[in-house]
UniProtKB/TrEMBL annotation:
Annotated CDD domains: UdpNAET
Organism of origin: Spirilliplanes yamanashiensis
Enzyme Commission identifier(s): 2.5.1.7
A single MF term (Gene Ontology): UDP-N-acetylglucosamine 1-carboxyvinyltransferase activity
Location within or outside the cell: Cytoplasm
Name of the protein in question: UDP-N-acetylglucosamine 1-carboxyvinyltransferase
Keyword DNA damage: no
Length: 451
């Protein structure tokens, strides 16, 4: 634990440019999709993050050859020799990520069986997989949950089906897509998630030869095909990382240009950022005009001086305000005048990190009620899923232990905004989703060091 700590000298506005690459929550799924092709796939702009390492390890175990391409961030996947892996080998990856659950459909198609280790991922509530299992069974898979993990077979093949998700789950929608594309017949999925990362995955599958229609009202129809080929794809940018740096600019009264960030998928965040009092400029407009290449455009975020405004917001599935934007933004809200309300409706236990902010001088109370908006499925179920943030509060340094990825980044932002030197423990967890964050902090003038 001692070498997994960062000393953060707070109080300096972050200033400068950093770049985001392909979205973590698309890249890892795009990598799983390579299993379905019968020719190699190429994925560009892949960030060097832990989730990518885990999925690379699992693909290699199953015979996919993963190599670096000529471009920085390019990965090439050759699925010519997909093979079974032993449960012991697979279990090395137990607890490291949630992505392995998405191997079910592709492995059933390629091998007729699959073994999925215990899942990992962030500890932000129970994170059940009942929608996944129900969907796989409807496709015809036999799913056995055993002490060592989940064993699946499909003795009669996988067949298209009609499904309706109880909640528009991102992972379960991806599970259905990755299974239905090569299942026999037509699949109709109702109440699907339609996050930009899912649409980008659909684009990839379409490149591979899939036939997928996204209808209005969260209905997706998939016509199964017999074969898919490899793809070449540049993923959408990471809108969670972009928003995290935006919140860091606001909380530290600084200015950060996030190169590579895209406006369209961040509209909801940008509206809230503006309501809070932050300023931003879409800098891809400079492209060509000032001799800047397309790759160098992005979004510049800054604190314009003066006071920030309190806001009421509710996290939701797309096109709502993402749950992963919540934690970084709350740090900035501790600096806003008045009472802000945050109603978390995606995860039931994603406000625990506010204790750490309170230990630094913030005034945040969490409630079981659905505050400030429409009642959600967590109301009256005893989950503290609404927060009231009173500000502005002067933050002071503290010793902090990172509980999960997004909360971890918000701890870091709080330490950067606070007076004095904080020690942030468990920072390696941040590498799961933020590429080279220590280098980027240095580029922005943050005073941090490994003590
Ligand atoms: N849910 C169930 N049963 C299921 C699946 C989901 O009840 O079988 C519930 C969950 O408990 C949760 C809600 O449905 O309350 C939404 O979960 P979802 O399945 O949409 O989340 P996920 O696919 O596990 C992805 C991202 C998360 C992001 C959510 C919501 C990845 C690898 N993870 O998780 O990202 O918060 O969608 O947008 O894509 C992160 O990047 O730090 C992260 C946690």
């Amino acid at each position: 634990m001692t070498d997994d700590v960062l000393a953060v000298h707070g109080g300096t506005p972050l200033q400068g440019q950093i770049r985001v690459r392909g979205a973590k929550n698309l890249v890892s799924k795009a990598m799983v999709a390579t299993l379905l092709g019968d020719t190699p796939s190429r994925l560009f702009d892949v960030p060097r993050i832990r989730d990518v390492e885990v999925v690379t390890g699992l693909l290699e175990l199953h015979g996919v050859k993963v190599t670096r391409g000529d471009d920085d961030g390019e990965l090439v996947f050759d699925p010519a020799n997909v093979e079974s892996a032993s449960t012991d080998e697979i279990n090395v990856h137990a607890g490291s990520s949630r992505i392995p659950i998405l191997f079910c459909g592709p492995l059933l198609h390629r091998l007729g069986h699959a073994f999925i280790p215990d899942l990992g991922g962030c500890h932000i509530g129970p994170r059940p997989i009942d929608f996944h299992i129900q969907a796989l069974r409807q496709f015809g898979a036999i799913v056995d949950k055993l002490p060592d993990g989940m064993h699946l077979t499909a003795p009669n093949g996988l067949h298209g089906t009609k499904l309706e998700l109880p909640y528009p789950s991102v992972g379960a929608t991806e599970q259905v897509l990755l299974t239905a594309v090569m299942a026999e017949g037509v699949t109709e999925l109702r109440n699907a998630a339609v996050e930009p990362e899912i649409i980008d995955l659909i684009c990839i599958l379409q490149k591979m030869g899939a036939i997928i229609t996204v209808h209005t009202d969260r209905v997706i129809e998939i016509h199964g095909v017999k074969r898919l080929r490899g793809y070449t794809h540049k993923p959408i940018p990471d809108r969670i990382e972009a928003a995290s740096w935006a919140a860091a600019a606001l909380a530290t009264r600084g200015e950060i240009e996030v190169l590579g960030a895209g406006q369209a998928d961040m509209m909801t965040f940008l509206n809230v950022f503006r309501s809070v009092g932050g300023e931003f400029e879409i800098t891809d407009a400079r492209v060509g005009r000032e001799g800047v290449s397309a790759q160098e455009g992005g979004i510049r975020f800054w604190h314009p001086g003066g006071e920030l405004n309190a806001v009421a917001l509710e996290t939701d599935v797309h096109p709502g305000f993402m749950t992963d934007w919540q934690q970084p933004l709350v740090v900035a809200l501790t600096q806003a005048r008045g009472l802000s309300i945050v109603h978390e409706t995606v995860y039931e236990q994603r406000l625990g990190y506010t204790d750490a902010l309170n230990s630094m001088g913030a005034t945040i109370q969490v409630y079981r009620d659905c505050l400030g908006g429409t009642p959600c499925r967590f109301g009256r179920r005893n989950f503290k899923h609404s927060a009231v943030i009173a500000g502005p509060s002067k933050l002071h340094a503290a010793d902090l232990v990172i509980p999960d990825l997004r909360a971890g980044f918000s701890h870091l932002i709080a330490a950067l905004a606070a007076e004095g030197t904080s020690r942030v423990y468990g920072v390696d967890l941040i590498n799961r989703g933020y590429e080279d964050f220590e280098t980027k902090l240095a580029q922005l003038g943050a005073r941090v060091e490994r003590p």
